[in-house]
Amino acid sequence: MTSKASPVQIISIGFLIVGNLIGAGILALPIKTGLAGFVPSFFGLLLTSAAMFYSAIILSREAVQKQQSTFNYPSLYQAYFGGTGKWIAVAANLIILYGLLTAYLTGITTIVNNLFSVALPTVWLMLGFFAVTSLISLASIDKIMKYIAILVVGKCIVFFIIASTAGTHIKAANLEHQHWPFFVSAIPILITAFHFHNIIPAICESLRWDQKTISRTMLVGMTLGFLMNATWMLVGIGVLPLDESSIGLANAFEKNLPATIPLAEAMHSEVFLLLASFFAMVAITTAYLANGMGLIGFMDDLTNQHLGKVNPVLSRVLAFVPPLLIALAYPDVFLKAIDFAGGFGIVTLFGILPCIIALRKARTPLERGLGFAMLALFAVFFMLEAAQELGLLHIDADIEHWN
User: Fold this and answer.
1) Which residue of 140, 358, 384, 393 has the fewest C-beta atoms within 10 A of its own C-beta?
2) What domains sit in the chain, N to C, each tagged with a CATH number?
3) What is the 3-state secondary structure (H, E, C) of the chain?
4) Least confident of 15-19, 79-83, 93-97
5) Model confidence pLDDT, tens digit, residues 359-373
């Protein structure tokens, strides 16, 4: 009989989930949602968190059913949809993880360059971060989880301090603004804010394939992530004005800036600047490591299928080098990379496809109804993002007629 996971392992997994959720997504959240307003954005936060938890449960059940250490999504979707499903999964996962790792690499350099006076060129900052985090990724999963857990504890403490400090500067008038059409542009970042699905196979294995423990741990991790995302969104929208000044939401939106940059300027506090910078850099680092783990597992699955064995070095080269090259070529692509990863990759791989699996396995009218509702929701998300990218749906930060 398989032994159950220890309380320490469960806590570590909970921190891993929070570390994955509270990354580049939370830094971009107030900027991408602020122009829509707090009320539309909070509604979106509730909706997308529920949808992403639904898909997480579906995928965890599949992992538990297989109970294979090499389980990953190309193999899963090939089993249900054949070769087409496998390559859709490959393409979607590459969009997600390359997009997110690119966002983390560009985000860390944007933060350092905007908040500190550094003599090093952007390329060296990016290469330095890449070298350190890639070196950490060579450790075992258990050790990486311990690193992330320690960083997440520090991140949560600092988050509480900066959110409390900035919270005293919230202006009620800023929270009254509502522009529902702009909510459409916030969908990818809201989806990304609740994405941790790449590490679900590792979570299931670490928690000894115990579905009840897995579900509870994911719920706790996502709930903490929701509370932190909602708080940060409240602070960002409540403090930053809706204009094109250096601390305005419209300016940050147009310049692809993380929320910590205008917030640090708005607070006029060196202590807040240091704490916000620490939070931002740790948030990106933990998310980079967590998503890097997911991408390594993904590459392990591919190399195992096509080469007949897992090649750890090749998996890490395929995981980390392409996003580094993209980030070096396009260093100002922070928000755009998150949009693309969320609106296309996450919605497809961790939204549409799991819902189809749920419908195929549904046994009751309730299960079928919920599956259809979630499938329709994710399909609408995909079509809205496609319409924006194709220029069929034009939404910009022109706020002159909103006030």
Assistant:
1) 140
2) 7-389 (1.20.1740.10)
3) CCCCCCHHHHHHHHHHHHHHHCCHHHHHHHHHHHCCCHHHHHHHHHHHHHHHHHHHHHHHHHHHHHCCCCCCHHHHHHHHHHHHHHHHHHHHHHHHHHHHHHHHHHHHHHHHHHHCCCCCCHHHHHHHHHHHHHHHCCCCHHHHHHHHHHHHHHHHHHHHHHHHHHHCCCCHHHHHCCCHHHHHHHHHHHHHCCCCHHHHHHHHHHCCCCHHHHHHHHHHHHHHHHHHHHHHHHHHHHHCCCCCCCCCHHHHHHCCCCCHHHHHHHHCCHHHHHHHHHHHHHHHHHHHHHHHHHHHHHHHHHHHHHHCCCCHHHHHHHHHHHHHHHHHHCCCCHHHHHHHHHHHHHHHHHHHHHHHHHHHHCCCHHHHHHHHHHHHHHHHHHHHHHHHHCCCCCCCCCCCCCC
4) 15-19
5) 999 999 999 999 999
